[in-house]
What we know:
Layout: H1 12-21, H2 35-39, H3 43-59, H4 64-67, E1 70-75, E2 85-90, H5 93-111, H6 127-144, H7 155-158
Helix pairs in contact: 1-3, 1-5
Amino acid sequence: KGTPQGRKPLNAEGLLETLARMSSDTSQGGDGWGVRELRRLPKAWFERLAVLLETCEYLGKWPSAMAQGLIAPLPKDSGASPQDIRPIAIMSVIYRLWAGTRVRELMEWQESWASEELSSYRSCRVSEDAWWILALEVERAILTDTPIHGGECRLRQSL
């Protein structure tokens, strides 16, 4: 049985599998829940949570404590000026638990149709793979003085 949108129904097992993959050192969201606290709860609690999350998906509404993120400034390197800080949003751990479960399902679905050229959000590839392939193509074009993507490789002549 699927949901109206064709997704798999959420269940305690899926949520617990995602929770097991989450780092216990992640920050708490505005609702005060942390990964360590969730890991102490019984499976029956996750069965009820799955029902709540399914309801949120169906209605398209989230409890305010789960929908609000805390903005935390993180330093990029050294310095304290605005350009040295990047803000991040820290969402509820329960929301991240839901999102992690659904993105895992999305990645499984993606594998059923994704071509070899697609690298992002794949368990067997990383984005750097695409850059390495492109770098090798550019290197070959330079060495053989052949056009690449509609332009002439003239880097060799300028070296």
